Amino acid sequence: MKAEIIAVGTELLLGHTINTDAAHVARALSALGVDLHHACVVGDNAARLEACLRAALQRSDLVITTGGLGPTGDDLTKETVARVLGLPLEEHADSLRRLREYFGDRPVGENQYKQAWLPRGSHAFANSVGTAPGCAVPAEGHKLVILLPGPPSELLPMLHDGVVPWLARKTGACIQSSMVRTFALGEGDAELRLRDLTGGANPTVATYATDGEMFVRITAKAATAGEAAALVAPVREDVCRRLGDHVYGVDVENLESVVVPLLLQRGETLTTAESCTGGLLAKRITDVAGASSVFHQGLVTYANEAKTRLLGVPEELLARVGAVSPEVARCMAQQACARYGSTWGVGISGIAGPGGATATKPVGLVYIALSDGGRTWLRVMRPHGRYMGRAWTRQRAASHALDMLRRAMLGLPVEMEA
Amino acid sequence: MKAEIIAVGTELLLGHTINTDAAHVARALSALGVDLHHACVVGDNAARLEACLRAALQRSDLVITTGGLGPTGDDLTKETVARVLGLPLEEHADSLRRLREYFGDRPVGENQYKQAWLPRGSHAFANSVGTAPGCAVPAEGHKLVILLPGPPSELLPMLHDGVVPWLARKTGACIQSSMVRTFALGEGDAELRLRDLTGGANPTVATYATDGEMFVRITAKAATAGEAAALVAPVREDVCRRLGDHVYGVDVENLESVVVPLLLQRGETLTTAESCTGGLLAKRITDVAGASSVFHQGLVTYANEAKTRLLGVPEELLARVGAVSPEVARCMAQQACARYGSTWGVGISGIAGPGGATATKPVGLVYIALSDGGRTWLRVMRPHGRYMGRAWTRQRAASHALDMLRRAMLGLPVEMEA
């Protein structure tokens, strides 16, 4: 089955909205073994949408549109699809009932009702979050057009609870893939280590880098999920062996989703003491559901007085070496650990920028310390002449803290110059 | 000038990477008054990329590709563009020099060198962050193909520092747009208030919703930036008047980028006391450069003991009403304010989920309190039967806290049931 995605929305062509929907749909199609060869974006313009739809229906068996199903005047997708397929719109009783339920005792705006009209012969997908249902519309030659709402909060549950199970019954071949995630390894370095693997056709091995992390995706296609998985497994093991302890996880979401379960397994706790990351590390740890067992408190000690008051960092030390120093980061980590009775303490102090540099301390310089009450480890992030911005610096510093904790728990070397 | 974007990368079609590049490029083109009618995605496949390029060059004057410029074997964009345009690749001295500088005293991997080869006649755009330069390649009929690297950290500075100024000299018409941002206003409600404005052609008025916020974009096109701005201004004022104090800012990034400058102006400070948001509010505040003047510390009091120790929330109160209660949220806000000597204190306590619900407290229930030392205000987020997930609940709760603070500073009503 060949598929393509048409994302509808002028806000996408103006760059006001990032097209996350296409990525969600693409991932779901890939897991179903549906080949996606085209994806495009078109504005809220009936004529151009019609041209895209007609071209797509010639090339592909399945066309998935995202966006343009809402109550407003520039929501045109359903009307345009119905016209291209020559189908009338009809009131859909179940969608009307859900729309009324959604509004409860609030009045239903008159512009809302058009959302309960669907092209004749459609299979409806209920919207568990918003008002506009999705639908699968039959087209000539056993082709299909599936219409999904634009807001990701509505599209995602509909895709996973409605569309994927429904499509799974229509498809045969299966794709399985695995993602090997590493920290502190360059893409070029990884490519050299994996060079003879990246030319393969089934499974394919691809490296890519995001936010300073490097990932390797191994993807295989076969008649069944089991056969595809059997093709992936040995290559995944080979990749992991070649990349060594840079690998922090396979098919995991991120560092925090590895570190929190590790702490849980060991029955250990962590207290964070953050200056330049300003709560980002605590936020990432508590992104993981169930973090409350291992994370009881975090201190955002942004000002020097807060470092002294909440962590007991000596005023004299702050005056002598400055807040952005190995000594203060170490002291923050040690005190986070000792004062708050945690197994582990992290201290982060640096200059996230864009302001705040001094003659000896450039923007982008961050010290990250980890303490277990006895030992204290330190990493230094130096900008190496290329300041990557405030958000990048903060995200990277929090990642280093998580990687240090991971490596310390596993007995691996922790310190490095980054 | 008509433009289109071709994003190159199998990871985009598999949904492993979200196509943020296209949004960045689209926004830049829009600001230059370049019409973007098409955007598409193609995998790392020379034949399909070639087909896309040939079609794009027929329809458009300017084709911008993103991705496929790196050192690895599946980076094919430059080679494919050169072949389609019939141009040889030539070593580019300045790019070679920069590549050598980038590696410094580290050895340059042999696979790196191809990045310093460009199609004959290209204008190079230096890569300030990575190794692959971009370039503008002349095509027949005064058309242009611009090649940009895929990683957003490389694409963004090249786009803004290199491509935009270079293209600005080639374009005439200008687009100006304004974004009115609101909080706690539904998209349907906004559309009814703005109905007679959304049909306009120049300026256009479009509403859209993301992450529970509702935005209105007003966009005008004219021969000069000044004329376009003059078309936008009166409509923007009309939109703001109709949406009233739901509007938290115009052409601002988010709530925190409004709240931090307001605090700065007033010479006031804030201390945060977070339970279920786990540092997210502190993180959002410290996302804003310069927050250190108004934000000295934040407490992430995830466990009950931490609420007692760091904020003095009475154990008796926690035992009697539970951590997720109006009383505890109020106490957290009051203590954050009083104990830490801040003008304002925020307390957030709730059940972000997916676990943690009780018979009387559903997942998604969050209490958000704000105190100025004298008065204390409270908001309640109730899931209304539809739990929107952990990330949404946390993000929304932090946004409510920021909106409460904004409204309190401006003397507007603060409390609501959300």
Describe this structure in words.
- Two copies of one chain form a homodimer.
- Chain A has 418 residues and is an alpha/beta fold.
- Chain A folds into three domains: 2-171, Molybdenum Cofactor Biosythetic Enzyme, Chain A (3-Layer(aba) Sandwich), CATH 3.40.980; 174-250, Alpha-Beta Plaits; 255-410, Alpha-Beta Complex (Maf protein).
- Helices cover 39% and strands 25% of the residues of chain A.
- Chain A has 14 helices and 18 strands.
- A six-stranded mixed β-sheet of chain A has the order 2-1-3-8-7-6, sandwiched between helices.
- In chain A, a hairpin with an 8-residue loop joins strand 6 and strand 7 (134-139).
- The mean pLDDT of chain A is 92.
- Chains A and B meet through helix 1, helix 2, strand 2, helix 7 and strand 10 of A and helix 1, helix 2, strand 2, helix 7 and strand 10 of B.
Strand order of the largest sheet of chain A: 2-1-3-8-7-6
Overall shape of chain A: it is globular
What is the oligomer described by this structure?
Answer: homodimer
CATH class of the largest domain in chain A: Alpha Beta
Give the CATH superfamily of the largest domain in chain A.
Answer: MoaB/Mog-like domain
User: What's the gyration radius of chain A in Å?
Assistant: 26 Å
Head-to-tail CA distance between termini of chain A: 46 Å
Described by strand count, sense and barrel closure, the largest sheet of chain A is: 6 strands, mixed
- The proportion of strand residues of chain A reads 25-35%
Quote the average pLDDT of chain A: 92
User: What's the total count of β strands of chain A?
Assistant: 18
